[in-house]
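Task 17 of the worksheet. Students: predict the tertiary structure of the chain below and write it out as structure tokens. Keep your answer in the requested format; marks are given for formatting as well as content.
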Amino acid sequence: MDNKTLPILNFVNSFVNKGHQRSVQAKKNILFSFIIKGLSICISLVLVPLLINYINASRYGIWLTLSSIVAWFSFFDIGLTQGLRNKFAESKAKNDVKGAQIYISTTYAVLGIIFGLLWIIFLIVNNFLNWSTLLKLPQDMASEVSILAIIVFTYFCLLFVLKIIITINVADQKPARASVIDLLGQCASLIFIFILVKTTKGSLIWLGVGLCLAPILAYIGATFYFFKNEYAIYRPKFSLIDFSFTKSLFNLGLTFFIIQIAAVIQFESANIIIARNFGTAQVTSYNIVYKYFGMLTMLFTIFLTPFWSASTEAYFKNDYQWIRNSIKKYNMLNVIIFLLSIVMLALSDRIYTLWLGKNKVHIDFILSFWGFVFVAFNIYGSKYVNLLNGISALKLQFWISLGTPILYVIVAVVLIKYYRMGPESLFIASVVANVNIIVAPIQYYQIIVKNKKGIWVK
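Model answer:
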């Protein structure tokens, strides 16, 4: 090994293995996640121009819009996976193996029933839907888009059941392994799409198969692997399904459910609103900006993901000092990422051209600017929300979430209809409706710094 390389490796090894065991595990996950997420970002960047060249910007916008519509059904998991995440972490902290196994078995059963019924209902209803009218498309595309809708909906129903294995890994403070599963699915999708580009003409149906089938296979493989090996003691069993346990999952999950609905309305309705007001090509422009600055969200998430379950453990063990130190470090990281985002904004036009090629997609600077503001606000508030989710202090979020979707829609409609603004209206509306960016830091301060109870910890 190179003599210059050895000191660097020694420094990294010393840094990673220094500190509290909880911090050491988090740092190891962050380090591995950097590598995994870096590869994931590269694949995402390659896929976008590949897909646009395969089916053009307008048809790619159809795929994005349809995916957003189907994603609305995500709220039917009623927050159960988030409830499982906290309950599994609590059970492990208490060494309650049987309890953890029952929670896992019951979650699989409940989600399997819910999404199985939804899938059957959708197959029936889809026969009566005219997607061309709904999305304002040429009528000759109705059949193609209808088949694509079935493919995408089937994918989402399977995904919500199969992603339980992701929840278990993340709750076990091992998010890097969860990211590997997603990466394998992305790699398979990239290979499939590359073959399609070389062997077929642009087809929305083949696109749907390529982007949906590969991740499903990756999740199935991961589920069998983990329950046969490391999580064998937690393997779900029919005999351990106990629907009485759904009460505690539902009590916690229902709050997450309401919060998720607010998120779904704000993040998934944007594509639909843009498609109906500005055309599907603008959906592509909006999503390119979202992906571009979203790389910063992904970067911050690499550091933040271990914090949720680690904070659950720290809170139940009254280790408030560890939580305060973690928040300080995340604030310093916020400053670094904000400075990086300014550079990205300044270079955005050049990077779009290098990334997508000339004249492929037109993106106004104003859209990029508000995408930058939107991501900066979200990143700042996410560490506080993550902590509150981890310690199940959800009541304030719950009440806020009842009003934010209404505020979001009102602001978006006013900006589009009365101020004649473009797709950037959706970014602005999201920023205005993000009330939690003010409330969550206050709640953190009251719980962790001032040690207050009452409404703050509910």
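Marker's comment: Residues 23-456 form one domain. The chain has 17 helices and no strands.
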